Amino acid sequence: GGRIGILGGGQLGRMLASAAARLGYSTHIYEPGACPAADVAADWTQASYEDLSALHGFAEGVDLITFEFENIPSSALDALVSACPVRPGRRALSTSQDRLVEKEFLSTLGLATAPYRNVESLADLNAAIDQIGTPAILKTRRFGYDGKGQVRIADRAEAEVAFAQMAGAPAILEGFVNFSHEVSVIVARNASGQVSCFDPAENLHRDGILRTSTVPARLSNSQQQDAILLAGRIATALDYIGVMGVELFVTPGALVVNEIAPRVHNSGHWTQNGCTIDQFEQHIRAITGLPLGDGRRHADVVMENLIGDDMDRLPALLEEPAAALHLYGKAEVRAGRKMGHVNRVTPLSPRS
Ligand code: ATP
Ligand code: MG
Ligand code: MG
């Protein structure tokens, strides 16, 4: 037993809390806003990340803290780590919170990324376009998710409007990667340095939001091997403890690393019905110092996110016998809001 604090009470926090409960841990959620995780956790504190005394009280009451999102302010993190271990740690957070720091880290590991330049002014942006060319994507360095905080630049004439849309936020320009498809690797690492990867999933996005993740992904055996090796290298280089998502672009020449997420990841939800030990349980095992479990895939799975009024299809989904439904318990349906997902499971196909 023991008590795990989870920062963030969205669906990821909710699924972490239920995995923790299965392993005999109680959980305490910290969440400033709406909290779908509240109904599965033992406790819930509703307070902001500016409330340092609430954070301190939360940290004093748990044995270990983890999180479901990477944008924890560093002042909040300071308050927490003074009272309680936080896993994964500071290095993983500071690296993945800032796209520039993240890309520099990946480059020092010798991994391929999109070409990138730091952009602090319109002059920087124009110079970056001269060097990288178009099409390109201007992204805020911090706080982006689901494609928010990004502007595509088709040609130089669009630079000024794109820069204005950043509203003064620090940004990077990324060259457009001409990928054939996108995959991700969910990797787990525990304190003894044991590393385990789930099979790569192939991810389809629409309007910047993940729609489906499919296993097996279309990868040659050597690409699959590369993907798993590079995810392990990233985790080890960060001295990472927990589960991490590594997003990759597949190009003929190389696997290009898009970004890393220091947490359980939407593209790993297929593991709930495709593996004996899913990403949520693997994360709880990793952070609590338990041995990692068996993450081998025993089925083919297509995970489909249920977003906004996809929920109208609920009756039809319930009629599908091999569609495993995972709803998040969110009261209100809104456009673009992730309401649940469904895993469609079929027997393991032979890989060539
Ligand atoms: P997430 O919700 O995964 O955290 P995000 O807001 O951090 O998303 P990215 O992963 O950077 O955004 O980009 C979202 C999607 O936009 C990518 O999955 C990819 O489809 C496309 N994209 C992003 N960067 C590039 C690039 N340099 N070249 C081509 N496509 C890109
Ligand atoms: Mg992201
Ligand atoms: Mg992404």
TrEMBL record:
<dbReference type="GO" id="GO:0034028">
    <property type="term" value="F:5-(carboxyamino)imidazole ribonucleotide synthase activity"/>
</dbReference>
<feature type="binding site">
    <location>
        <position position="205"/>
    </location>
    <ligand>
        <name>ATP</name>
    </ligand>
</feature>
<keyword id="KW-0067">ATP-binding</keyword>
<feature type="binding site">
    <location>
        <begin position="258"/>
        <end position="259"/>
    </location>
    <ligand>
        <name>ATP</name>
    </ligand>
</feature>
<feature type="binding site">
    <location>
        <position position="182"/>
    </location>
    <ligand>
        <name>ATP</name>
    </ligand>
</feature>
<dbReference type="InterPro" id="IPR011761">
    <property type="entry name" value="ATP-grasp"/>
</dbReference>
<keyword id="KW-0547">Nucleotide-binding</keyword>
<dbReference type="GO" id="GO:0004638">
    <property type="term" value="F:phosphoribosylaminoimidazole carboxylase activity"/>
</dbReference>
<feature type="binding site">
    <location>
        <position position="99"/>
    </location>
    <ligand>
        <name>ATP</name>
    </ligand>
</feature>
<dbReference type="GO" id="GO:0006189">
    <property type="term" value="P:'de novo' IMP biosynthetic process"/>
</dbReference>
<dbReference type="InterPro" id="IPR011054">
    <property type="entry name" value="Rudment_hybrid_motif"/>
</dbReference>
<dbReference type="GO" id="GO:0005829">
    <property type="term" value="C:cytosol"/>
</dbReference>
<feature type="binding site">
    <location>
        <begin position="144"/>
        <end position="150"/>
    </location>
    <ligand>
        <name>ATP</name>
    </ligand>
</feature>
<comment type="pathway">
    <text>Purine metabolism; IMP biosynthesis via de novo pathway; 5-amino-1-(5-phospho-D-ribosyl)imidazole-4-carboxylate from 5-amino-1-(5-phospho-D-ribosyl)imidazole (N5-CAIR route): step 1/2.</text>
</comment>
<dbReference type="InterPro" id="IPR005875">
    <property type="entry name" value="PurK"/>
</dbReference>
<comment type="similarity">
    <text>Belongs to the PurK/PurT family.</text>
</comment>
<dbReference type="Pfam" id="PF02222">
    <property type="entry name" value="ATP-grasp"/>
</dbReference>
<comment type="subunit">
    <text>Homodimer.</text>
</comment>
<feature type="domain" description="ATP-grasp">
    <location>
        <begin position="103"/>
        <end position="288"/>
    </location>
</feature>
<dbReference type="InterPro" id="IPR013815">
    <property type="entry name" value="ATP_grasp_subdomain_1"/>
</dbReference>
<dbReference type="Pfam" id="PF17769">
    <property type="entry name" value="PurK_C"/>
</dbReference>
<dbReference type="GO" id="GO:0005524">
    <property type="term" value="F:ATP binding"/>
</dbReference>
<dbReference type="InterPro" id="IPR040686">
    <property type="entry name" value="PurK_C"/>
</dbReference>
<dbReference type="Pfam" id="PF22660">
    <property type="entry name" value="RS_preATP-grasp-like"/>
</dbReference>
<feature type="binding site">
    <location>
        <begin position="174"/>
        <end position="177"/>
    </location>
    <ligand>
        <name>ATP</name>
    </ligand>
</feature>
<keyword id="KW-0658">Purine biosynthesis</keyword>
<feature type="binding site">
    <location>
        <position position="139"/>
    </location>
    <ligand>
        <name>ATP</name>
    </ligand>
</feature>
<comment type="function">
    <text>Catalyzes the ATP-dependent conversion of 5-aminoimidazole ribonucleotide (AIR) and HCO(3)(-) to N5-carboxyaminoimidazole ribonucleotide (N5-CAIR).</text>
</comment>
<dbReference type="GO" id="GO:0046872">
    <property type="term" value="F:metal ion binding"/>
</dbReference>
<dbReference type="InterPro" id="IPR054350">
    <property type="entry name" value="PurT/PurK_preATP-grasp"/>
</dbReference>
<keyword id="KW-0436">Ligase</keyword>
<protein>
    <recommendedName>
        <fullName>N5-carboxyaminoimidazole ribonucleotide synthase</fullName>
        <ecNumber>6.3.4.18</ecNumber>
    </recommendedName>
</protein>
<comment type="function">
    <text>Catalyzes the ATP-dependent conversion of 5-aminoimidazole ribonucleotide (AIR) and HCO(3)- to N5-carboxyaminoimidazole ribonucleotide (N5-CAIR).</text>
</comment>
<dbReference type="InterPro" id="IPR016185">
    <property type="entry name" value="PreATP-grasp_dom_sf"/>
</dbReference>
<dbReference type="InterPro" id="IPR003135">
    <property type="entry name" value="ATP-grasp_carboxylate-amine"/>
</dbReference>
